[in-house]
Design goal:
There is one protein chain. The chain is globular and about 45 Å long. The two termini are 29 Å apart. It has 151 residues and is an alpha+beta fold. The chain has 4 helices and 6 strands. The longest helix is centred in the middle third of the chain and has 20 residues, at 51-70. A hairpin with a 4-residue loop joins strand 1 and strand 2. Strands 1-2-4-5-6-3 form a 6-stranded antiparallel sheet. It has a single domain, classed as Hotdog Thioesterase (Thiol Ester Dehydrase, Chain A). It has helices at 2-13, 15-19, 51-70, 103-114, and strands spanning 23-27, 32-36, 77-88, 96-100, 120-130, 137-149. Helix content is 32%, strand content 34%.
Length: 151
Amino acid sequence: MATLGLRLFGFAKIPMMLYVRPSVLEISNERVMVKIPLRRRTRNHLGSMYFGALGVGADCAVGALAMHLIKQQPGNISLIFRNFSAEFHKRAEGDVDFSCGQGNEIAHLVARAAASDERVETMVVVVATLHDQGDDPVATFKLTLSMKRRP
């Protein structure tokens, strides 16, 4: 169900996200794991995953977890990413899983946003690994997640 929600959001708001066909493998209040398949649309000229597709995966992972937590709060909270940095460790020559385990920090951020008229932010880390090939990261992303309550 979370995959369908993510894809519908992509279709309606961010077509690039839909283009890479992310799938939510796991989502809870504590963590999320999103997979992007390596295929013609996500591959670069060397046969590994294009860095733009990797960026979309990091965005989807944090965005899906944040939206999951925002839905649990009353009120209307908007989110955006203020900063994005990436460190690429090796070529991603297969499907890639993007995981974020900072659900507690994001939930705290959501609560702060719901209780304030000010914009609130936190740094979130996403680790990308090859699907079914262990925990050796292919990339690490740092995103500054920014939220504000909408009137």
